[in-house]
């Protein structure tokens, strides 16, 4: 073979090693009027590039020309190779019958080594079509021939494909063995695109084995590799959507899938990928609570898969379509039959999703009162509880719990729920990022709700309290995994602060900020991505809650009021004097509406001249008490009260409620969290730290006076109030007072921040502390705002501090008047000097304020959290 022939032969491997360069050389070759054989190669290279990275219609045109030139060159192997490439493109275009026919001709025309390559590509097509047994058979025939020919690249591709098929069939161990063997081969080649694909596939394997952080890290690494090659990543988008959904990030998965669909449509890309992206979008929309979007996406996916003759995929899309219709409130015998048929077909494929379909059929049947049919379907789904990945086992335990409920066995319901939530706990503790831990609890919401209902019927208030605690604020039960000492993460945080500070300055000066905001969002995505890669380190599921321990610590004087919500109504669990009592209060939806009215009133009262709104706000406080405490308000006694609200009521200003107004009052995300705070000892050598950030209307006027009161306090203000120095001083402090503008980020709660001289200090920064301050006072607006996520979890600044060694926080959940805050803070510290707890000092500080509307609203806006 001549040098020219060698150069042309190198083009085909190059299309996956350096796609852009391969495309350029192929076009240059065609410009040189090559012979038929070389023209065939050039058109094939351009066709592959367009098929995988561009316009599928152009790909088919080039591949047909490549086939014709191969026929003119009278080379059977050349023609067979092109027919295989064309077959893949036709299948991706939805023309399945033509594609398979091209493969038949390719297998017939090729011999030996070339036939093995054709078989590998047909195996890939079988995988795309969901025909996994045929895929495994073709790979089985191809691999020995490729190995014998010492064809490293194609052997590695075949092993990677076989591993991917094993994953689709739920055989994770076999898949990992093939991925490992393929990766060893890839390390000996320069096929960068194939290497990126191998990393992506390992990410999928990590996900299938239940390791979400590693899956996210590997998928991000694969994306970086693809980006360096300048190639689109539609398959990666689909896989990342799957992982994001499992991590409880369904809205993000929906946004990613929809963005990829728009991009694919824009380049005229593969219709097979579009169908798969639509399926991912449908799943994400359903999990995000948008059944109508899910129905639209799933219905279109079903039509595309059916037209492409992809029965395996079509059946999965039908499952999502039925789930979405059920979520939209539709229930019928037809829907039960459809779900049962889907379950049967998925089981025949060996698909891991089969138990989900059986569970769905059983759930719909139960809703119709068809107990015999429900039992049959649920019994099938329940078999998955003893094996497989965590979410599959949870599906099985959910089915078992529904079986027990239908049989009237409260004990059986509670046992199944306990076992299922234990599985979730084990899975949750593999996640290092507190956000992922919080969002993962959503997958146990049904089990927890079933257990609470069973407890309400048969177990009494104590058991209901245990199950209420079982699924709320679980993220706070253990300290979060410390972010790694990653130089890129640390430099990213520094760059984020710089950009955020410049954007804030530009806003204040009226200069354009769009470019700065785009860069800030990009840096936020990078930081968040790196923190999501963290693996959990804590063994077990954290401390177990014990009612007896709680009652012992409460004693005879303190009352703890835990609010549970069952079927939309508030259940009040009043703990104290050695017992737990239950009272029924109002509807949660009405309480949420009233709480929003109160927030609006407090915002108005933060400005002078709004005194007329005070009676309206006070009346709303009385209505809130009726809705949230009901008859329990008359049984609170005269001592301190701890309120444990559900996540959706975290913004209620509890001190506004008449029965709580004059009390020592604290708030806690859970009873277990309050117990841990109560048992947290102050640091033996902790100091006092006072921080004053920039831009405050009063200049943080309380800080200089407090500095005089605490002679040994460390004071950080003006240029000294920079994030690294502030974090250094806060670590292990006994008391920290931070006067700084707070910003709550509902879209990304862990980027909620306090403004320092060099930019924002965010929740991610506090998670780097070895020990956060024992007591911390945040004297500005919105520092106590939290995002309710997962089952009943809260993300924000306050909840980030509590597992890190902070036993008590004073913070504000509404906008306040800066000037009115100063006397409140001074009075608060006076109480602390006298040896009072934060809750006691805050109660006395409110009473010491002037009686006008402005100061009263300021006092109500602040709450004490924890037990210090």
Automatic annotation (TrEMBL):
Domain CHAT: 619-861
InterPro entries (UniProt xref): CHAT_dom (IPR024983), TPR-like_helical_dom_sf (IPR011990), TPR_rpt (IPR019734)
Lineage, opening ranks: Bacteria, Bacillati, Actinomycetota, Actinomycetes, Kitasatosporales
Superkingdom of origin organism: Bacteria
Species assigned in the record: Streptomyces koelreuteriae
Protein name: CHAT domain-containing protein
Signal peptide: none
Pfam family, one: CHAT
